[in-house]
Predict the structure.
Amino acid sequence: MSDMFSLGMVICAIFNQGRPLIQANHSSSAYLKQIEVLEEQVHNALPRVPIALQEATVRLLSRESRNRPTAQLLSLIKYFSDPAVQALQFLDVINMKDPSQKSHFYRNTLKEVLPFIPRKLWFQHVWPCLQQEMRTQEVLAAVLQPIIHLIQECSLEEYENIILPAFRNVFSIPKTIQATVTLLENLHIILEKTPRDDIRSEVLPMLYNGFESTTIQVQSAALVAVTNVSEYLDETSIRRMVLPKMKAVYEKNSTDLKLVLNVLSCIEKTLDRLDRAQIIDEVLPMLWDVRLQDPDICLRVVNIYRLMLSDKKYGLSVNLMATRVMPSLLPQTVNPSLNLDQFTCLLEVLQEMLDHIDRNQRNKLKLDNMSLPSPERHRPLRHLYSSDNMHVPPFNIPNLRIEQRKTSSAEDMARKNSTDSGMLGGWWFGASPSSPDSNFLRVNAFPNRRLSDNTLMTPKIRIAPSCASSPGGTPGGGGLPIRRHSSIGPQERRGSTINLSPPTGGGFHYRSVSREGSTLSVPSAYLARSMIGGSMPNTSSSVPFLLSSSMSSIRSRRPSACLSSSQGSAGLLQQLGSGMFVRIWKSGQW
């Protein structure tokens, strides 16, 4: 039991920075004195001892030998059951294990405990065992797992001097499918520290051979490897080796969702290394052929299109967007498998494509329009320059109202029969009936008028109430006036839309003049004096105006006294019957 006490003293010295708890210098008296305070010294050093070993240390340094544990019991405590220690112990007898036990140990146990094994033991105790097992194909796939961890954690010098000389042969020797997949999936870790010459001569040939494998797992692993190590590949290798092999793999396994996802990831990673012709001739047809029902595949394709939209060098023109890309993406907007984020991403890309098409087409149409000759350039927009669409403020003559109306058949007959009064009409309007100015009243054609009489004063328009003395009025009624129409009988009346009956009493008032389908409101005094050769009185009285009826309505009413007194007035009526009618209200009658 004295040996167990000595073991406890060694454990305390190890964790007490090498200083033992008892330093008697071979003096028995000093030893006895320090033994008396040993319990206190153990208590002070105990915080520096691992927790799993503290209880065992206290019992080992007990002054009573019966309290100390035996060597068998000490080996069973948790501290000495450390997985790293057990792994190292298993490596000592690894040659006695079968391949299945070896595979389980390398793949699970050693890979998990390797970070807890001291770094110095990696290359003194662990690596020699792994180097020996690399020659066995049955356990090669399992051995590669801890080897990859060693490569990832070691320095560049350690890798080149210790690991690479033996590991270089793994790239060229025959391997199982699982070993090849493990190498390809972790190829980016290996290439980080492998010299460029070894990459071109040893690693890349293994990568290209993976595309030609007949196993989908190896082909898929090769696609993953290209995605991870694309920065180590030059453009020539990607264009001449990777892209053709990748396209062949897709054509043979287009129904495998996992492989299609790896193909799309590889395209997205290497797209900027491909030239424009390859993208248009090989990549885009592959994207159009992909089935987009799966949400992950749809999102991956959308991301590739988003990358193409970012730069014109990829060759995604607006014609391809409108005719091929968008028709393939639009049905996926109603795909029930898409979540909100995927749906939003899809719509953003579609909207970006529409914006590209909009800008391109607008600029193209503007350039095409500018390149045409002047008449041709304005011809497509002729309706914009038409005078029918020009909204010019109308020129209004005071107290003059022009309204278009359809002439009746009676007026047309009267116009044909008024051949004798052509001179009078020309004198009256200052032009021939066929003149373009025949619809306008010319006030400067009267030699007996003063210049001041040519000014038409703006009257205050007053709508008079209906009265019995006005033609068409309803006696005692406050409703709308009723006028006769030329196309109905003399006893029939039609309601007017507004009440324009003049007030009773004397004086001259404005009446309407109808000519060539137009109705003009002119002063009645002006017409009366002009027809009898007099001058127009200058009056500013407030008078209303009346719209003219048809010719039959004029003939059905009593003629004016001033017009029925002379034969010349009848000729004037014939002239007016050809398109112009005059009504004069004076002294309470027409």
The chain has a mean pLDDT of 74. The longest helix spans residues 340-371. The beta strands are 402-404, 482-483, 494-495, 510-515, 518-523.
